[in-house]
Amino acid sequence: MTRTIRIGTRGSKLALAQTGIIAQQLTDAGQQVEIVKVTTPGDRSHAPIAEIGVGVFTSALREALAADDIDVAVHSYKDLPTAAEPGLVIAAVPPRADPRDALVARDGLTLGELPPGAKVGTGSPRRMAQLRALGLGLVVVPIRGNIDTRMGKVFDGELDAVVLAQAGLDRVGRSEVVTETLDPIQMLPAPAQGALAIECRADDVDIEHLLQSTVDDEATRLAVAAERAMLAALEAGCSAPVGALAEVVEDIETDADGNDVYVQKISLRGNAAAQFDADSAEMVRASAIAAMTDAERLGKELAAELLDLGAGALSGPGRDPR
Ligand SMILES: NCc1[nH]cc(CCC(=O)O)c1CC(=O)O
């Protein structure tokens, strides 16, 4: 392609690091790129994310894309609303970074070593609900801000610990502050955590094909499709108390001749707070496995199971009390 590709990004350290990865891949593929910073309302406001609403970090990038101010938008996939954006397509999903959550605690402590009453900071309803559900007597303190601001509250003694995405810390080069990478059995990550969504205009077929052939990773795309189908079927947005993790696993099947053969499948774990409000301490959990080609159906089925188990039963916009 002879034109210079304008890649839009938020100006945060994390967003710039993520955009840098994609810019490098396109440059390696022989393309000319230019990085364009876009300020989002999410960057300007200090209100809790749950109050400013879904898509605060992504809508300004999407507007810039639709207005032809940029050609490609690089998003943290977990920040994107589940509804498709008319006129835009997610052309590629690059290989996923570590999807897990990470604990940054004082004195090198792990989650299990934090004493009852320890103050743990997070602004995410999903992390809050799971921390409470552990039953460790932790005091969850709502916080927000960029990675440096949140970690700073542990280093200055205001909090005993904070929970952050491992991928974010890895990408800004601060992995050394992590005192425990949380096993998904303790804390299921947000749907699409650690994954990026590379978006372009739907009518920009040249860019779409270029992105598909240079940065897309099929296993990540399918895993994220399963997780987000589950989230969407729960009618829950990106700040909902819902965790999901899909992984490609090997399974043994018997073929027509009676031989054992290895096949790749997609496994999905999901959980949700029983109450979609700030105080929920009860979680429902489920898991299932399906063929790679059934990723989205797997997500929908797991959501149905979680709803049967009582996910979000007591609150949430547009849901019948049940
Ligand atoms: N909601 C903010 C946000 N969006 C993406 C990441 C981290 C990187 C990722 O999950 O891909 C973070 C920070 C965090 O949750 O600690």
TrEMBL record:
<comment type="subunit">
    <text>Monomer.</text>
</comment>
<dbReference type="InterPro" id="IPR036803">
    <property type="entry name" value="Porphobilinogen_deaminase_C_sf"/>
</dbReference>
<dbReference type="InterPro" id="IPR022417">
    <property type="entry name" value="Porphobilin_deaminase_N"/>
</dbReference>
<comment type="function">
    <text>Tetrapolymerization of the monopyrrole PBG into the hydroxymethylbilane pre-uroporphyrinogen in several discrete steps.</text>
</comment>
<dbReference type="Pfam" id="PF01379">
    <property type="entry name" value="Porphobil_deam"/>
</dbReference>
<feature type="domain" description="Porphobilinogen deaminase N-terminal">
    <location>
        <begin position="5"/>
        <end position="208"/>
    </location>
</feature>
<dbReference type="GO" id="GO:0006782">
    <property type="term" value="P:protoporphyrinogen IX biosynthetic process"/>
</dbReference>
<feature type="domain" description="Porphobilinogen deaminase C-terminal">
    <location>
        <begin position="222"/>
        <end position="307"/>
    </location>
</feature>
<dbReference type="InterPro" id="IPR022419">
    <property type="entry name" value="Porphobilin_deaminase_cofac_BS"/>
</dbReference>
<keyword id="KW-0808">Transferase</keyword>
<keyword id="KW-0627">Porphyrin biosynthesis</keyword>
<dbReference type="Pfam" id="PF03900">
    <property type="entry name" value="Porphobil_deamC"/>
</dbReference>
<feature type="modified residue" description="S-(dipyrrolylmethanemethyl)cysteine">
    <location>
        <position position="238"/>
    </location>
</feature>
<dbReference type="InterPro" id="IPR000860">
    <property type="entry name" value="HemC"/>
</dbReference>
<dbReference type="GO" id="GO:0005737">
    <property type="term" value="C:cytoplasm"/>
</dbReference>
<dbReference type="InterPro" id="IPR022418">
    <property type="entry name" value="Porphobilinogen_deaminase_C"/>
</dbReference>
<comment type="similarity">
    <text>Belongs to the HMBS family.</text>
</comment>
<dbReference type="GO" id="GO:0004418">
    <property type="term" value="F:hydroxymethylbilane synthase activity"/>
</dbReference>
<protein>
    <recommendedName>
        <fullName>Porphobilinogen deaminase</fullName>
        <ecNumber>2.5.1.61</ecNumber>
    </recommendedName>
</protein>
